[in-house]
Amino acid sequence: MTGLEDRPGLGIALRVLAGFLTAAMLVCIKSVSDEVPVGQTVFFRSLFALLPIVIFLMLRREFPRALATRRPLGHALRSGLGAASMFASFGAVALLPVAEATLMAQLAPIFMAIGGVVLMGERFSLYRAGGIVLALMGVVVLVLPALDSNAGEGKLAGYALGLGGALLTAGALLTVRRISRTETAGSIAFYFILVAALAGLATWPLGWASLSAPTLGILILSGLFGGTAHIALTLALRYAEVSRLAPFEYIALLWPVLADWLLFGLPVSSGFLLALPFMLCGVALAAMEGRRLRWWLRR
């Protein structure tokens, strides 16, 4: 990609912005989760995420040319997995603090490492094995307190949905890795969001809530935040290498912690604090592998 090494500062700033916008989207989702069904939330979030993405493609003179595809079945698989992941992730956000739901979503690279070995014949290295063990230890540390809690049943369901969302996200990203050889980033994003909106719309017969003006506004904001976050992340990867952005991936966890504390009055749990280093170290180890990890430590 052009300019990949030339503007790392801009790439880092865009990655931090993407994390902030994603957290803002999740805050919107959680704030309406008691009154709006997950399917209805998925529909509005996806529908209004199309707006910034289409505008972005038009500014780059890639719309509608970028939507041409040679891999419709690949798009269908990626979009279906991504839509299912969105349902699971939003369900987790409804049941868990935003910080804990975000931490569960960080497990996607662990599942990608496993999927890369099982499905794509990649090498199963000691780095991947160590990363998987550390991440699983973090999950155990996070989940154990819920077993003795009065609200444990709801939290356990939230953790299960979070794990399912991370697994589905990993499947979607592995599919992206395959189809991105012939498909544009714009087409992959557009078809995913379109399928997610249709999947959300399909839940209408199950019963949707009547929306007040403030609730509708929050749902619209969730879509605008989500779509803009996707654009910011795409541009971040254009301006800086993945290995250079990696240390800033986890600044994204700061915003959910602040949101839980300041907006929802939820203190950071001891389980979260104990699980955090295990899970983040495991994800970094599995995702970066040996050579890239040694390079990053030298930097």
TrEMBL record:
It is found in: Membrane. SUPFAM superfamilies: Multidrug resistance efflux transporter EmrE (SSF103481). Pfam families: EamA (PF00892). It comes from Halomonas dongshanensis. This is DMT family transporter. The chain crosses the membrane at residues 12-32, 38-59, 80-97, 103-119, 126-144, 156-176, 188-209, 215-236, 248-266, 272-290. The keyword RNA-binding does not apply. It is a multi-pass membrane protein.
